[in-house]
Amino acid sequence: MTAIQICALIALIALAALLVWAGYRMGYSDGKSTGMEEGQEIQHAASAKNIRELRASLHFITADRTRLVDYSKRLEGALALGGPEHLALLEIAEKLRIAAETFSAFRTGKKLERDTRVLRDKALDMAQQLAPFNAGDAA
After folding, report:
1. b/e map of 63-99 (b: 16 or more CB within 10 Å)?
2. What total number of domains does the chain contain?
3. For site-directed labelling of 64, which of 70, 115, 116, 131 has its Cα 20 to 30 A away?
4. 104 with 117: CB under 8 angstroms?
């Protein structure tokens, strides 16, 4: 081999090595950028899942809070009407029971008897709602 051929061979080997090194660097940078993008997408998906779960939890807590606010308003209303109203409703229920028994004796008083019993049941339900409130009932 002549000196020119040896120099050309060395130049070809150097160019081939340079080409391999450039291909390696380009592949490395492309792989690195692709990996970074995939990592960000995975992190974004996990964050989106957490956001969905937190929103569902927020909706549940909001609905529970609304239910508790309504319950508290009902309790405040029941506490505003106290013992005297409870006793009055019990007396009304007793008088309606007596009236229902009286109407049942008459042949034409069946409708009045039914109406009186319905009113008595409503009065007893209202009296039960106004019954003294125990701290254990709130739970």
Report:
1. eeeeeeeeeeeeeeebeeeeeeebeebbebbeebeeb
2. 1
3. 131
4. no
In a domain, 89, yes or no: yes
Average per-residue pLDDT in the chain?
Answer: 83
Identify the residue with better confidence: 102 or 64: 64
- Nearest-angstrom CA–CA distance, 6 and 54: 71
For position 11, what pLDDT does the model report? 95
What is the distance between the alpha carbons of residues 13 and 49, in angstroms, rounded to a whole number?
A: 53
Residue-wise burial string across 28-40, b where 16 or more C-beta atoms lie within 10 A, e elsewhere = eeeeeeeeeeeee
Alpha helices in the chain (DSSP H): 3-80, 83-105, 110-129
- Which token pair is 19? 């080409």
For residue 133, the 8-state DSSP code is: P
Centre a 10 Å sphere on the Cβ of residue 124 and count the other Cβ atoms it contains: 17
Within a domain: 134: yes
Q: Residue 136: pLDDT above 60?
A: no
